[in-house]
Design brief:
249 residues; Rossmann fold; seven-stranded mixed beta sheet; 11 strands; 33% helix; 32% strand
Length: 249
């Protein structure tokens, strides 16, 4: 019997929806997108945008409101169904496609590709991460830009908690995390309880420092790489909230 990887389990993503896309986060999307567009700088020649690992489409929809031609890509079909319904309600023409990120490639099709909210580093083999970056590079038009936002290794090291307890929309969540393989991977086990029923969800992320990820971006061909610690353009230092990199083709 063929086993599937943790990120391919649709039922887990459906269960995590209220945790990942809690109402407070969704409300802030317009601010987040406004800041990231400002951070990207000159976008006069930017028309076609890919939101890679788009989830329920919160960034895709906001980008479409700005007038971009948006394609949202995600592996989880229930999320894409939600995104499509929301876009249709607003009369926004967004193309949503179901695909594993490491396989998706549309040569020279996009002027901008964004990969946000630590939607990277899911694979057991680092070569699959590098393959993903190569396909992103190939999918950009000449002079196109790529923005990635993840929790960098440095941020996780400074904020790491073995156990966190959270509550979202009627769900109680206990998250237990541990560092694996000499600080190369993070394991997070979430115990999600609603109506006295508990389910366990496990996720793994490969951890990248700023210098490591920048090196891989350079390796696949990106140039003029900039690193920031938040969408306001702050430095990636000991006070950084996330790691944001922008590279050009």
């Amino acid at each position: 019997m063929e086993t599937i990887s943790w990120y391919e389990r649709e039922s887990d993503w459906v269960l995590k929806r209220s945790i990942i896309f809690n109402k407070n986060l969704v409300r802030l999307t317009f601010i987040e997108v406004g800041r990231l567009l400002k951070l990207l700088g000159n976008l006069d020649n930017t028309r076609r945008v890919m939101d890679l690992c788009c989830g329920i489409g919160r960034h895709s929809i906001e980008l479409a409101r700005y007038g971009f031609e948006v394609t949202g890509v995600d592996i989880t079909q229930p999320y894409l169904d939600i995104a499509s319904e929301r876009a249709a309600r607003e009369g926004l023409d967004i193309q949503f496609e179901q695909s594993d990120m490491k396989e998706y490639c549309r040569p020279s099709e996009f002027d901008l590709i964004v990969n946000l909210c630590t939607s990277f580093g899911y694979f057991d083999d680092i070569e699959d991460d590098i393959k993903t970056l190569r396909n992103i590079y190939k999918s950009l038009a000449p002079n196109g830009k790529f923005m990635i936002e993840i929790l960098g290794k440095e941020v996780i090291a400074s904020t790491f908690k073995k156990v966190e307890e959270l509550e979202y929309d009627g769900y109680k969540v206990v998250a237990k995390s541990r560092i694996l393989d000499n600080w190369t991977r993070l394991e997070c086990r979430r115990y999600v309880t609603k109506d006295n029923v508990e389910e366990e969800i496990v996720a793994y992320h490969r951890l990248y420092s700023a210098s490591e990820l920048q090196g891989y971006l350079q390796e696949v061909g990106f140039r003029n790489i900039q690193v920031y610690g938040n969408f306001a353009g702050g430095p990636y230092d000991n006070e950084a909230k996330s790691m944001i990199m922008i590279g050009e083709k």
